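Section 5.1 Outputs to date
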Amino acid sequence: MNGFLNFVGFILLIASVFVFGLKGMAAEMGIAVAASGIFLAFANLDKFSEFKGAGFEAKLKEAVNEANATIENLKEVAKPLIKTNFFALAKAGRFSEGAFNKSHDVYDQLSELQEKIGLEGQDLENSKSSYLNIHAWDMVSELSGNIERSGNEKFSVTSREAIGTHSFEVAPDINKFNELVSGLELNEVPKRQYEALKSYYAKYKL
């Protein structure tokens, strides 16, 4: 179990530094690193009985035993870190990378980590939905622009009128978008992006 918890703590530490460092959020990164350190300390309590530093001694194992620390306590440490990372990922690199060039590997890894730890909660699901929804909108927006530039005049306007505009709360209605695209002759780039959009919806069950 310790090996798994160490792995969890390490992943949280790396993900926090990467996401908050990328966005220049120094304070948030410091908090996340500290929380990850606490997580790792709790996970390795059986390896030491005393912790010395800053001029004081703390008998961590005794303190934790008195507080009846359990794996559930560790989950409570991990939960806000994972949730915060999902929210940060939803906003990171949206306009610099291009909607169809963005990798969703970090999101996938955090989701897998959440499942392995057994974390649940509506707040976590909301943060995941925000990520998936906004990137679906970015993809639809970029694709609509490329369809318009390939000769389908005012397609972007027609698309916005039919399915609305960007939202973290809900993904674009793919069925309505399919109706707009149906019958159009797409050139290479829009065609490739349209297939990628449909794959995204299928993979994440939007």
